[in-house]
Amino acid sequence: MSSLQTDHQDVRTFLRSATDAAATALHAPAPDAIIGLGAQRIRRRRLAAAGSGLAALAIVTFGTTALGGGFHRADLRPAQSTSSAADPMRPGTVKVVVPRNAGADTTYVVSIFPDTSGGHVYVQDGTGTSENDFAPGFPIEGATPDIRLVILPADAVSADLLPAAPTGGVISSGPTRVPGTAWSVMAFRYDFAPTSGPATAIWFRADGTPVTRSGAGSVVDFGEVKVWLDKDADRAGLSVDGNRGAFAMAGHGPLNAFEMSKSPDAKTWFIGGFIEGPATNIRATLDKAGQRQLGDIRAKPIPGTAWTAFVIQVMTGGPGPAATITWTGADGQQHSGRA
Amino acid sequence: MFGSAKAERDAAFTEFMRAATPSLLRTAWLLTGSADTAHDLVQAALVKTYAAWSRVRREDAVAYARRVLVNEKTDRWRKGHGEITVAELPEAAQRMSTTVEDRDEAARLLALLPDQQRRVIVLRYYNDLSEQAVAEILGLSVGGVKSSASRGLAALRVQLAAASSTSTAATTEGRVR
After folding, report:
1. Options 1.25.40, 2.60.40, 3.30.730, 1.10.3470; which CATH number does A214-338 get?
2. B17 touches chain A (CB under 8 A)
3. Do A38 and B39 touch (CB under 8 A)?
4. Directed axis angle between helix A31-55 and helix B2-32, to 10°?
5. How large is the greatest C-alpha to C-alpha distance in chain B, in angstroms?
6. Which residues, other chains included, contact A33 with Cβ-Cβ below 8 Å and sequence gap of 6+?
7. Is A133 in contact with B79 (CB distance < 8 Å)?
8. Which of A14, A18, A133 is closest, CB to CB, to B103?
9. Are residues B104 and B175 in the same domain?
10. B67 and B100 assigned to the same domain
11. Are residues B118 and B148 in the same domain?
12. Residue B59 structural domain
């Protein structure tokens, strides 16, 4: 490799030349406008903080559930209260207590102000107030980087963040309804602050349907197994028996597959995922079958997409060796990929 | 008393803005490829920085504003406003001889990179941030930054080489004529 490439001077020069060329077209915002808008933002934040102090009379303290690392998670506790559907634009406040293994719990007062252009979420932690965009399904960082708060639709009964924490465990709180609103708040505390991200949430309705911010339209129901795809968030995964799921980044090849079971010691596992385009005659071959046996293979188109979801049952014991998946594409040709 | 404190705050922030805005604008332009969008992004980042000014250490102010800017762009993407790219992609087959053409060509090449690779390339090789610093800003692992940088550099070099060979061919053709 040349020295030019070793220190990437060629790319540095390219970027600097590009910005030099662009400089004449770039116009700085007016300082007075910045200060005016900034002062307005501070006033709005103070108003929200004052409002949330009053609303904190309606306090709901979250129950907590310990979760393990990886994708074999204990059940999350359902929301403690549900009420009739509320206006999604209605603001509200809830108090969230995030438990700690040692020391005092962290308490947050979360105030949501949805509006047609997005809205805001104000989070008070006792030391200050942070202002955040109202973006359900996207985590808001707490007072410390190990804590994430997520706004979810009120019908969510459990949720997880994607990608999951790479190491250590997670304790979650909620989701708990923000009284009088169409929204809930869920809190996560990681043993180790997640370094991968940015994360998004997957949440589950009471019937076990997994939902992402793209909605539930990309979920294919195979009974005990659901394959879901959130192309917009670049996430995909499986859900087995309700609110347990294997989550991963969606890949960019023609085949994306994941393996999971209801529990680590389950006798039946599933290889599932999706194939780009229509696919028929889906077959699987385990690299080293051993005691593992292939069972049913099921496939369905993913509604609203050009993808085909599939699930392959693998019987007898534990996660196993990789498999080769073959299928016939829309072109009539046989294709294959690795799972 | 209160008015005086605000005046001092505003004066300090104005001084910061004057020093930091050119660099922020250039970073925003590299991230978006659009002068108008860069203006909007920098404005949004500076407004948020102003609102947080009492908590921002002066020596960290530029880094804070840059972080807000990068995340502001991410937020916009998350909200479904779409990837912000140049409005029109100019053809690559022309020799870029003027400043405007150089700018458009650079925007076109950067627009070909996936969003994350583009952010990593800009922060790492334009802002000269360490892998760790980039990882912290983008919420990635250091390994993720290395991987994105490697793929982004490779993709960018392929495009630069293609643009270069095209321009050479055009020049040669010009000589024949």
Report:
1. 2.60.40
2. yes
3. no
4. 110
5. 76
6. B43
7. yes
8. A18
9. yes
10. no
11. yes
12. 1-84
